[in-house]
Design brief:
mainly alpha, transmembrane helix, 77% helix, transmembrane, membrane, Polyferredoxin
């Protein structure tokens, strides 16, 4: 790879990481908002549950990996847990555990208060 190729790859990797981080923020924010909306008795809680469920399906059909991870992998040999996203290493590593738990808890809370 030439220097120019390296800089092009770095620019592309940064773009993928920005898009991936923005998408992560939307889904993480949605998961956090579910119990808040449920507490306020807003039907938007159900919409957010469905919205996040679509992402769960995407992950499930991609071997529990975001499709953007494969795109980012084209531009670097780095394979740390956060090579493809602007998150701290610990959060990238445990992201599915943390937000999966919050998502399930949000669904349970929504069912409890809105049923």
């Amino acid at each position: 790879m030439t220097i120019r190729d390296d800089s092009t790859a770095l620019r592309q990797l940064r773009r993928v990481k920005l898009v991936h981080t923005a998408a992560w923020a939307v889904f993480a924010g949605s998961i956090i908002a579910i119990p808040v909306f449920a507490h306020l008795r807003l039907r938007a809680a159900w919409a957010l549950i469905g919205f996040v469920f679509i992402e769960v399906l995407v992950l499930a059909f991609n071997g529990m990996r975001c499709p953007l991870t494969a795109i980012a992998a084209r531009y670097t040999s780095d394979r740390r847990d956060n090579f493809d996203i602007y998150l701290p290493l610990w959060l990238a590593r445990y992201n599915k555990h943390v937000f999966g738990t919050l998502y399930v808890a949000g669904i349970a809370y929504t069912l409890m208060v809105m049923s």
